[in-house]
Write a structure and sequence with these properties.
The structure holds two protein chains of two kinds. Chain A is mainly beta. In chain A, about 5% of the residues lie in helices and about 50% in strands. Chain A is globular, with a radius of gyration of 14 Å. Chain A starts with a strand and ends with a strand. Chain B is α+β, with helices and mostly antiparallel strands. Chain B is about 20% helix and about 40% strand. Chain B contains five helices and ten strands; from the N terminus they run ααβαβααββββββββ. Chain B has a six-stranded mixed β-sheet with strand order 1-2-10-9-6-7, covered by helices on one side. In chain B, strands 3, 4, 5 and 8 form a four-stranded antiparallel β-sheet that branches. Chains A and B meet through β12 of A and β3, β5 and β10 of B. β12 of chain A pairs antiparallel with β3 of chain B.
C-alpha cells in the first residue's frame, strides 16, 4: 500500500493524498485503506455508520453541508483541498451534499443513496460522465 | 506493441504538429465500411483525434476490436460550454431522434468520468497551463486521453500544445497537465483547454470531452 500524505484526520480516519494526487481514505487504527475519494461525494461504510469524503471541486468551495433524512445540516470545512465527515449513523434515504462558498452561498449539490446504489461514488456537475453501466 | 506504434506516431506528430492527417475523416469511413456503428455525435471528435489513434480510426491494426463508437450519452447534461461542436449533427432529423434517446438514457449511472479542472486554463510562471482528471469505477480494457490547448487569434482557435496520454494502468485514477510557454505576457488572449478521452468497455468504444475557456495575459 502506497503511503498517503495526510490531509485531514477525523476520528481515527485519515484522508490523504497519494504522490499522484489521488485522494484515499485510510483507517488509522487497522491500517486498512477504505478506498478512493476522487469523486465529489464518496460514502465509506465503517463499523458504526458511514463516512463521507470528497475533494474540493471548485476554488470557492469552502464548506460542505451534509443533510441526511434525520439531520437537517452538518457543516464540514474544506481543508487542504478536501473534506471528510466523522462516522455518521447509517440510515435509509438520501444523503445530500451541498457545496458552499465562504459566505454560505450554494455552489452545487449532489445526492447519494447508499441504501439503493450501495456505496457508489457520486460525481458532481463539473465532471462529464460517460460509459453507461447498463447499455 | 501498440504503445510503441503510438509513441512513434506521437513523435511524428510532434514534427508535423499541429497539422492533422490529410483526411481526418478517413477513419470514420474505414469504420463504417468495416460495419462499426458510428454515433453521429462522435464524428467531430473522431475527426479531430490524433491520426493513428483508435478513436480517429478504430480499424487501425493494433486497436481493440469494437462494434460501435459512441459519444458520452449524457450529452444534454453536459454544460453548454463543455459540449463538442456538433451543431451540424444535432441539426439533422436523425440526430434529433438520437438526442431524444440520449435524453431518455440520461438517468443511467456511468462508469467513467473526466474533467478539465475548473481553474483551467490558467497562467502560471510563464506558461499557459491546464489540468485534467479521469477515473473509471468499473474495469475498462483500453484508455487514451488527448489534451489540447487552443489559443484564439487570427479569428480562429489554434492548436498551440497537445499531449497524448495512454496510461499503462487504464483502470487507475489519471491526472495530467499540459502547458504552453507564453511568447508574450502583455497580450490578453482567450485560451481553451480540451480534454478528450476514449475507452473500450464491453466491445464498444466510448468517447467524451471536457473543455474550459479562460482569458489570460499570455500571447
Amino acid at each position: 500500500m502506497i503511503p498517503a500524505r495526510p490531509l485531514i484526520v477525523v476520528a481515527g480516519l485519515t484522508l490523504g493524498a497519494l504522490p499522484n494526487g489521488q485522494l484515499v481514505v485510510d483507517d488509522s487504527g487497522s491500517g486498512q485503506r477504505l478506498g478512493d475519494a476522487i469523486a465529489t461525494l464518496t460514502p465509506f461504510p465503517v463499523n458504526d455508520g458511514v463516512v463521507l469524503a470528497g475533494q474540493q471541486e471548485r476554488p470557492d468551495h469552502r464548506i460542505t453541508l451534509i443533510v441526511t433524512p434525520t439531520n437537517t445540516g452538518m457543516e464540514y470545512p474544506v481543508k487542504n483541498g478536501a473534506w471528510m465527515t466523522e462516522p455518521i449513523p447509517y440510515e435509509a434515504g438520501p444523503i445530500t451534499m451541498i457545496a458552499k462558498d465562504r459566505d454560505g452561498r450554494e455552489l452545487f449539490r449532489v445526492e447519494a443513496r447508499p441504501d439503493v446504489d450501495g456505496f457508489r461514488p457520486v460525481f458532481g456537475p463539473d465532471w462529464v460522465g460517460y460509459v453507461p453501466t447498463a447499455d | 506493441m501498440r504503445r510503441l506504434v503510438l509513441a512513434a506516431l506521437v513523435a511524428g506528430l510532434a514534427v508535423a504538429a499541429p497539422a492533422q492527417a490529410q483526411n481526418p475523416r478517413a477513419g470514420i469511413e474505414h469504420a463504417k465500411t468495416a460495419g462499426i456503428f458510428i454515433d453521429p455525435l462522435v464524428e467531430p471528435l473522431m475527426a479531430e483525434a490524433p491520426a493513428g489513434s483508435c478513436l480517429n480510426d478504430p480499424t487501425e491494426q493494433d486497436c481493440p476490436r469494437v462494434r460501435a463508437v459512441v459519444y458520452a450519452p449524457d450529452f444534454f447534461h453536459v454544460p453548454e460550454s463543455q459540449r463538442p461542436p456538433v451543431a451540424s449533427a444535432v441539426a439533422s432529423r436523425k440526430a434529433s431522434k438520437r438526442a431524444a434517446r440520449i435524453r431518455a438514457r440520461a438517468a443511467v449511472v456511468f462508469n467513467c468520468y473526466l474533467k478539465v479542472n475548473l481553474t483551467s486554463p490558467y497562467y502560471s510562471a510563464g506558461y499557459e497551463q491546464a489540468d485534467g482528471q479521469h477515473y473509471c469505477l468499473d474495469t475498462i480494457t483500453d484508455l487514451d486521453l488527448y489534451f489540447v490547448l487552443y489559443k484564439y487569434y487570427n479569428y480562429k482557435w489554434n492548436n498551440m500544445a497537445y499531449r497524448w496520454f495512454y496510461p499503462t494502468n487504464v483502470n487507475a485514477y489519471w491526472h495530467g497537465s499540459i502547458r504552453y510557454a507564453c511568447v508574450s505576457t502583455s497580450v490578453k488572449r482567450n485560451w481553451l483547454a480540451k480534454l478528450s478521452s476514449w475507452v473500450v468497455y464491453k466491445g464498444t468504444l466510448y468517447a467524451a470531452v471536457s473543455q474550459r475557456e479562460h482569458t489570460d495575459y499570455c500571447g
